[in-house]
Design goal:
Layout (H helix, E strand, L loop, with lengths): L1 E4 L4 E6 L5 E7 L9 E4 L10 H9 L7 E5 L17 H14 L5 E6 L1 H12 L4 E7 L7 H12 L7 H12 L8 H11 E4 L2 E4 L7 H4 L11 H5 L6 E6 L7 H10 L3 E6 L13 H12 L3
Parallel strand pairs: 4-5, 4-6, 6-7, 7-10, 10-11
Antiparallel strand pairs: 1-2, 2-3, 3-5, 8-9
Helix pairs in contact: 2-3, 5-6
Length: 297
């Protein structure tokens, strides 16, 4: 397992079960006073989405917590897979378990944005013993076709900005209608998390083949649901965040989730769509309160 330091976190490389070289950022390694957090990003996203969120827990939270943020295969600093079909929830869940073993994490609370929430539900079926609590950021057992269509369209036509200023402007133009609550600083952080500068070119920080996982789906068909996997979380405390303007997690789905899960709390993030930026709107403090209330290690 190779290591190097980032601004605050420790950049760690480990090996997936099939030999792929994968990456995670470990914040607060050595903190052992409270339940650690594992952060899982969205479909095309990476560990940088959680940098400010993680900083809160290692510097401001009480108690402080170790936070590990994963780059899935084909995203961020993880190696790209030669077979795009391996970009799937079950394979990525297995990669997370491999990362936990490499980092000496026996159990944790999971924070999953979109795809990360689906992986969390899959882990509840695969290895429930590693989980102590789950935060689902704008995702549930029912994925709305409209939301998936929008994600597919964006990935299929991902822009290639010529400068960071242009990249930020493109983000605002694409997402601004559904995210009126974001500040200029938020837009900068969002853009810097989504793109990477390589050889003086600003490019999306994921394998372009990732879009094939969506173009291979016929969105005219009824999409499968994950109610059995969600019910696998029934023994755990669950906190659901929903963007007020989300087109992926409907209010009706959230209502049913609360009806079938007796230990679920939820919060609607005003002025944001899919998916709310995890460091904004007081979300770190809300998650901190949720974790402190469950009183578990």
């Amino acid at each position: 397992m190779a290591k190097q330091m980032t601004d605050i976190g420790e950049s760690v490389f480990f090996t997936a079960p099939d030999g792929l070289r994968l990456h995670a950022v470990d914040y607060g390694r050595g903190i052992a006073d409270a339940l650690p957090l594992i952060c899982l990003p969205g479909l095309s996203r990476n560990a940088r989405d959680f940098s400010r969120f993680a900083e809160h827990f290692v510097t401001n939270a009480s108690p402080k917590r170790r936070v590990v943020c994963f780059d899935y295969r084909g995203r961020g600093l993880s190696e790209w897979d030669r077979d795009w079909k391996n970009y799937n929830v079950l394979t990525e869940a297995g990669d997370v378990l491999a990362g936990m073993a490499a980092l000496g994490l026996q159990h944790a609370a999971f924070v999953g944005t979109s795809r990360g929430g689906l992986i969390s539900m899959a882990l509840a079926a695969m290895r429930p013993g590693v989980m102590r609590a789950v935060v689902l950021n704008d995702v549930g057992p029912v994925i709305e076709g409209d939301g998936l269509t929008q994600i597919r369209a964006y990935l299929s036509r991902a822009p290639r900005p010529k400068s960071w200023d242009e990249a930020i402007a493109l983000q605002k133009a694409t997402m601004g209608k559904n995210f009126p609550a974001l500040t200029d600083e938020d837009w900068t952080l969002e853009t810097r998390a989504k793109y990477r500068e390589i050889k003086n070119k600003i490019v999306p920080d994921h394998d372009p083949a990732l879009v094939r996982t969506l173009t291979s789906i016929d969105l005219r068909d009824r999409l499968p649901t994950m109610w059995p996997q969600f019910l696998g979380l029934s023994a755990l405390p669950v906190f659901v965040l929903r963007g007020e303007r989300s087109n992926l997690l409907r209010r009706e789905t959230l209502k049913k989730m609360a009806e079938v899960h007796s230990n679920l709390r939820h919060f609607t993030v005003a002025g944001q769509g899919h998916a709310p930026l995890i460091h904004t709107s007081g979300i770190p403090e809300l998650v901190e309160d949720f974790l402190n209330d469950i009183k578990t290690r």
